[in-house]
Amino acid sequence: MVTVSSARAVFSFPNPVNELAARSVAAFVAVIALAAIVAHLPWLSAVLALGFLARAASGPTLSPLGQLATRVIAPRLGHAKLVAGPPKRFAQAMGATLTVTATIAHFGLGLTAVTYLLLGLVVIAATLESVFAFCIGCRIFALLIRLGVIPSDVCAACADIWSPAAVSLRSESVAGPGPGGS
User: Fold this and answer.
1) Nearest Cα to 91, choosing from 40, 29, 153?
2) Given pLDDT bands bounded at 50, 70 and 90, which one contains residue 134?
3) If I label 130, which of 34, 51, 85, 160 is the partner at 20 to 30 A Cα–Cα?
4) Are strands 17-18 and 82-83 parallel, antiparallel or unpaired?
5) CA-to-CA distance for 122 and 119, rounded, in angstroms?
6) Per-residue pLDDT averaged across 30-34, rounded?
7) Contact 32, 48 (CB under 8 A)
8) Distance of alpha carbon 18 from alpha carbon 16, whole angstroms
9) Cα distance between the two ends of the chain
10) Which sign, positive or negative, has the C-alpha torsion 66, 8, 150, 115?
11) 146: Cα separation from own chain's centroid
């Protein structure tokens, strides 16, 4: 029997997030999106969309790629580097928006060129995240907090990098794996 508390456990997003796991997922996403473009496989946009939707809804819980990254790859890359969860969730939602739109463009409208354009944006964003730890969605999230679109209490560690929450997050990263670290 599914209870409200078990559903909340499944559909919760980790906070903090192990950046090594997030970057690992991004590397796979970049490769899959690039393969879709190069090999002319626009249907892979649907696979990517399902993954983004699963990760936006539940972090790595419902995502096979998220599970691989958090349980297998990230622990082998060293100590967890913890970062705030809400911006990463926002970034996953942005990826979901791009890939769902790409899927609709291909399957619903027959606009495969639009699909490839959107997947190209995914390749750029995922490559920036995986190679340089530059999260476009996280930057947009921070901008939306500064503009007051997103309330600052959604992510105390994001709103003020010197807040106790942010300092605690950084110190947990230095100390080694903590909550959500593997």
Assistant:
1) 29
2) very high
3) 160
4) antiparallel
5) 5
6) 98
7) yes
8) 7
9) 28
10) positive
11) 21
φ, ψ (nearest 5 deg) of residue 83 = -130, 160
Phi-psi region of 133 (alpha: psi -120 to 50; beta: other; left: phi over 0): left
**Two tokens at 77?**
């890359």
Q: 163 pLDDT exceeds 70?
A: no
What's the DSSP call for residue 181?
Answer: -
pLDDT at 181: 43
- Do the Cβ atoms of 137 and 95 come closer than 8 Å? yes
Q: Which residue has the tokens 């995986």?
A: 130
Structure tokens at 82: 């913890």
Instruction: Tell me what pLDDT residue 78 has.
Output: 92
Q: Count of alpha carbons within 13 Å of 15, Cβ hemisphere only? A: 19
Q: What pTM was estimated for this model as a whole? A: 0.84
Alpha carbon distance 30, 48 (integer Å): 10
Beta-ladder partners of 18: 82
Q: Does residue 180 surpass a pLDDT of 50?
A: no
